[in-house]
Amino acid sequence: MILVDKEKMRAIDSYAINVLKVPALSLVERASLAVLKHINLNKFGYFAIVVGVGNNGADGLALARNLLARYKDVEIYILGDVEKASEEFRLNLESCQMLCEEIFYVQSIEDLEEMERRLNNVNLIVDAIFGTGLNRPVTGIYATVVSIINNVMKYKISIDIPSGLDASTGQDLGEVVDSDLIVTMQLMKKGIYEREIYKKKCVIEDIGIPQKAIDSVLYGLVD
Ligand SMILES: NC(=O)C1=CN([C@@H]2O[C@H](COP(=O)(O)OP(=O)(O)OC[C@H]3O[C@@H](n4cnc5c(N)ncnc54)[C@H](O)[C@@H]3O)[C@@H](O)[C@H]2O)[C@@H](O)CC1
Ligand SMILES: [K+]
């Protein structure tokens, strides 16, 4: 099995997008559908999607949109400054705003208290806070939200990486989301594989990154 660290995965993403011209939005969409296929929609009908403002968050918003498209009940919790959001995040947020009334920008203590209260009513929580972009310890409101998510007994799915885990070293950069399922994109991450507690609940999904991107970055194979 191929194992990649954060840097290698980000280089492969970048090669696919910038050299092989695979649209980033397509990868985000494929990532969202890769998670959707693991959700039993007969069993789960009320979702909380917790997003950061990067492309892990974009994956989460694309999933929210696909759930809303089927009239599922979705609440979206946004952490971080939307002004700093990625393009793919912004585009998916625009559509979610047309489909969803329950979008919460979590900034204050009161917001956290309301989030904690509301999470008791959903039946599935999606962790789309951080993926391969996590580059420092999780602190402040992010750390509080991870704790809130971990303290509520609900089925949890992490997109790509359980937020708080360093995808290269397997180190906990603060409290890590204790998800029931991790859906990692395209290649197994070293940091997940080396921690049995994460490896055993992780599935790998192909999101359409060309093998040529993987071979070029990992083995230097160029035309
Ligand atoms: N275009 C792409 O690169 C693709 C990315 N994908 C998804 O996007 C993720 C990578 O996205 P990004 O590179 O935007 O990064 P993330 O979405 O993982 O992180 C979001 C942002 O959080 C900030 N951050 C990092 N550590 C933090 C901390 N401790 N506290 C507060 N903020 C912190 C960083 O500025 C980072 O840009 C992947 O894990 C995957 O889920 C996939 O959709 C495939 C395509
Ligand atoms: K995540």
TrEMBL record:
Residues 9-215 form the YjeF N-terminal domain. Keywords: Isomerase, Metal-binding, NAD, NADP, Nucleotide-binding, Potassium. K(+) binds at N56, D127, S163. It catalyses: (6R)-NADPHX = (6S)-NADPHX; (6R)-NADHX = (6S)-NADHX. Binds 1 potassium ion per subunit. It is an enzyme of class 5 (isomerase). It comes from the Bacteria. Its EC number is 5.1.99.6. (6S)-NADPHX binds at N55, N56, G57, A58, D59, G131, T132, G133, L134, N135, R136, P137, Y142, D160. One of its GO terms (molecular function) is NAD(P)HX epimerase activity. Its cofactor is K(+). Signal peptide: none annotated. Belongs to the NnrE/AIBP family. Catalyzes the epimerization of the S- and R-forms of NAD(P)HX, a damaged form of NAD(P)H that is a result of enzymatic or heat-dependent hydration. This is a prerequisite for the S-specific NAD(P)H-hydrate dehydratase to allow the repair of both epimers of NAD(P)HX. This is NAD(P)H-hydrate epimerase. It comes from Anaerococcus kampingae. The gene is nnrE.
